[in-house]
DNA sequence: CCTACGTTTAACACATCGGTTAATTAACAG
DNA sequence: CTGTTAATTAACCGATGTGTTAAACGTAGG
């Protein structure tokens, strides 16, 4: 039912194991076995988590010999940021300066379009 | 399994109906019937969506007579923003543009003062 | 060719999700 | 008290998600 892109991305991020995998990939590419090492779950389970992340566009994968390396692709996070923009005016009640700046940037961008 | 707060928030956002409800609430508080109106699904289904949103902290609810009004609570979005912060260096390719905007804004502020 | 290694696929179990209709709760109105 | 309206809860159903183990696949290397 959740066939739209944003739903797929959010659903992929709604699992702590998958978020941990992303955190690990932020330190550099890794193979499936390397990614599985910190977890107590089986390798097939990790493999499917990677599939979910890949379908969400959060990782890209390359194969070299029998190893499959995953690397982080944060573009979907930008989509989330875009979605959240419309709500930004609600959660900047206690604006620090950076938030204020970001908000104004938004306005400038809109004015420029 | 997804008992941590961030997972609950992401899971709540992973449904297009729930995101549409949030979008509606961005225009102002609404009752359950009002929120259900644009959708073809039953009222109980909406009621449970609201429960999910409430448990994720994305809405708060108040009761007045037999009406239950929902209002947007965007604080969880801040948590998402915080989680995304560690990945910002990956996807903020346009940091230069951001800097440019920041400088321009600072100038504007100075001019306005 | 055969074996070992890294990974994926298959088949299954079980829980959760998102929907339904019917019944129930809660508050107002006569 | 009775009936109406707003919303939730209960009971159920099919689809999906996450885990397992066992089998299969693809490549490297003796």
UniProtKB/TrEMBL annotation, chains A, B:
InterPro entries membership: ArsR-like_HTH, HTH_ArsR_DNA-bd_dom, WH-like_DNA-bd_sf, WH_DNA-bd_sf
Domain of life: Bacteria
Domain HTH arsR-type: 1-92
SMART domains: HTH_ARSR (SM00418)
Gene3D superfamilies for the chain: Winged helix-like DNA-binding domain superfamily/Winged helix DNA-binding domain
Pfam family membership, one: HTH_20
Listed NCBIfam families: HTH_metalloreg (NF033788)
Name assigned to this protein: Metalloregulator ArsR/SmtB family transcription factor
